[in-house]
Design a protein that fits this description.
Layout: H1 9-30, H2 38-45, H3 49-55, H4 59-71, H5 87-103, H6 105-120, H7 122-149, H8 159-176, H9 183-196
Helix pairs in contact: 1-2, 1-4, 1-6, 4-6, 4-7, 5-9, 6-7, 8-9
Length: 199
């Protein structure tokens, strides 16, 4: 006797989740962040407002989830930076991609919105560190440790400091919109950082 299968609730939930995250990214890219509401996200995603609130407690939590989804590794593997054996080339590739990402208007508005919320929400700041910032930093430091072992980087260098020297100027330029984020600028940051921490 054939057994009828009920609806696939998990598949429907995942479709709703993806629709909500996509709607969030679209609306933040289109509107001033303060004008984006959970109601607007729900309407764009084609779901009820309570569907959002069952999963996320606030608009800022949805925005963070939308950003986190962009960084998720599709194949489920752990984060890793390229390691061709040429530290300078690998870092330039990563820094150029970072500069390009931050220069993208849609990503720019999303990350600025999130930074506004993080500044005023310690719980969200902790979640951001735990789920995104710390895993990314650990992946970067793994590549730097490889370079130390290969004699391409000062073996006694503080890797947290290396990352700050490498990334902080880019973040500062992005935050203040003081100058364009170009590939040439990304390359110059890598070159300056490697001179500062040469073996």
């Amino acid at each position: 006797m054939a057994i009828e299968k009920g609806p696939d609730h998990s598949r429907r939930k995942e479709r709703s989740r993806q629709a909500i995250l996509a709607a969030t990214r679209e609306l933040v890219a289109e509107e001033a962040y303060e004008k984006v509401t959970v109601e607007a996200i729900a309407a764009r995603a084609g779901v009820g407002k309570q569907t959002i609130y069952r999963r996320w407690p606030s608009k800022s939590a949805v925005v963070f989830a939308a950003l986190l989804a962009l960084s998720e590794n599709a194949d489920g593997q752990s984060l890793a930076l390229p390691d061709t054996g040429d530290l300078e080339a690998d870092l330039k590739l990563v820094m150029r991609a970072t500069a390009e990402e931050f220069a993208d208007p849609a990503f720019d508005r999303l990350i600025r919105a999130l930074n506004t919320e993080i500044a005023n929400d310690p719980a969200l700041a902790a979640e951001y560190q735990d789920k995104l910032a710390r895993p990314l930093d650990e992946a970067k430091k793994a590549r730097l440790r490889s370079a130390q072992e290969a004699g391409q980087l000062d073996p006694g260098a503080d890797l947290d400091l290396v990352l700050e020297v490498l990334y902080a100027p880019l973040f500062q330029r992005w935050l203040h919109r003081s100058a364009p984020l170009t590939a040439a600028y990304a390359d110059s940051l890598v070159e300056a950082s490697l001179r500062a921490f040469a073996p």
